[in-house]
Design brief:
Helix 2 packs parallel to helix 5. This protein has a 6-stranded mixed β-sheet with strand order 10-2-1-13-12-11. It is α/β, with parallel strands linked by helices. Strand 1, helix 2 and strand 2 form a beta-alpha-beta unit. It contains 6 helices and 13 strands.
């Protein structure tokens, strides 16, 4: 007897990929992207500008954050964060930005005179009555305190590379749904011709394209070399 068998044909073509997930943008996100309008425009994605943008975003405010260069800053500045700064980051929910940047714990100072050193630790009340001193803190966070010989907890600071810290803050901003971080150089403010109220800013991209951004509030946090300081503050800082 004969058995008629159908040949087995293996389909070597790849399985169809699932369609990409459709991400629905919020109305505020569409407004930022298409009309360049937000609740707040922040100029400068440094320590102040980025921290402020994240804080406002977590209050459900729409934020446009503008920075002329998103490359890691490469300059020696702000290498030591005092205990009060560590406390401020914790209160803002940005304490994790000190992780993975090779930050070094700082317990105080040491004065060396002719080879003899004297340690001067931070006092236990260096940051007031906060989590660092009473052993509390946010869940899952490391305590920024050291126990001395008497069992009392003293706060600690952090020393790190400024640029790596800035990049961590910017990464935190990019994770916020309410923030649009844009690389663009702000060239001027836009004012109401009648009242003088600042309505937003003019900017220019790296390829020379001019643009504008509007917000109910404009914050100029463009650093020590601010091009706008003299426009709004008469005295030198």
């Amino acid at each position: 007897s004969f058995i008629n068998a159908m040949p087995l044909i293996l389909d070597s073509s790849p399985s169809p990929s699932p369609p990409p997930a459709i991400v629905e943008l919020s109305p505020a996100s569409i407004r930022r992207r298409e009309h360049h309008e937000s609740d707040v425009v922040v100029v400068g994605a440094g320590i102040l500008g980025t921290s402020l943008a994240v804080t406002l975003a977590r209050q459900n405010r729409s934020v446009i954050l503008l920075e002329k260069s998103l490359k890691e800053p490469d300059r020696i500045v702000g290498e030591l964060l005092q205990p009060g700064g560590v406390q401020a980051l914790k209160k803002l929910g940005l304490r994790n930005c000190l992780e993975d940047i090779d930050a070094i714990r700082v317990k105080g100072y040491e004065v060396i005179y002719y080879g003899n050193g004297v340690e001067i630790p931070y006092p236990s009340n260096a940051v007031g009555d906060d989590d660092n001193c009473n052993g509390g803190g946010l869940q899952g966070e490391k305590q920024d305190a050291v126990v001395n010989q008497f069992g009392a907890k003293r706060p600690e600071g952090r020393s790190f590379h400024h640029g790596r810290f800035i990049q961590q803050l910017r990464a935190a901003a990019m994770r916020e749904e309410n923030i649009s971080l844009i690389e663009s150089t702000v060239t001027g403010t836009i004012k109401d011709g009648w009242t003088g109220q600042v309505l937003g800013v003019e900017a220019e991209t790296k390829d020379g394209r001019k643009d504008v951004y509007f917000g109910q509030l404009t914050v100029l946090a463009d650093g020590y070399a601010s091009r706008f300081r003299k426009e709004f503050i008469a005295h030198a800082p």
